Amino acid sequence: MKLTSGKLLGLMEPGRIYRASELAERFNMSTAQVNDILCTLVEAGFVRMNSHSSRILRFERLSFEPDPPSRAAVDTDAPATVATPPVTRTRQGPLRDYEASLASVQSLAMAARYSSRG
Fold first, then answer.
1. Can you state the percent helix, strand and coil of the chain, rounding each to 5?
2. What CA–CA distance (Å, rounded) separates 44 from 52?
3. CA distance linking residue 108 with residue 102, whole number of Å
4. Would you give the distance in Å from CA 31 to the centre of its chain?
5. Phi then psi dihedrals of residue 56, to 5 deg
6. How far apart are CA 16 and CA 105, in angstroms?
7. Top mean-pLDDT range of 1-10, 21-30, 59-68, 89-98
């Protein structure tokens, strides 16, 4: 049986402190392999790492209890609202100012193009 981070997390009791060497002996693995799995769990936020000295690391599984629903989420008497996108203005017809600025940029680009050939 290959030990994965999910299996290790499932076997750890919340609030209990473990040493990597203890878990390695329990699962007949090297301490380095268990350390790698535990560090992955620490990065994911499921386990907390405590160090009491420079050489001994201890790991604690964090317990996640769901928060009870808030009163506002349970209240069914409140009117339902629907999020809508903001109203945008539509413009019909040619975009005179925009087209004029595009034409001036185009003529400038063409003038630079012809002068570079010259």
1. 45, 10, 40
2. 22
3. 10
4. 29
5. -105, 120
6. 69
7. 21-30
The pLDDT value given to residue 117: 67
Percent of the chain whose pLDDT exceeds 90: 1
What values do phi and psi take at 21, rounded to 5? Answer: -65, -35
Fold for domain 5-61?
Arc Repressor Mutant, subunit A (1.10.10)
Q: Is 43 exposed, middle or buried (0-12, 13-18, 19+ CB in 10 A)?
A: exposed
pTM: 0.51
Q: Give the whole-angstrom CA distance, residue 64 versus residue 14.
A: 9
- pLDDT for position 86: 65
SS (H, E, C) 51-87: ECCCCCEEEEECCCCCCCCCHHHHCCCCCCCCCCCCC
Task: Find the helix or strand (DSSP H, E) in which 12 lies.
Answer: none
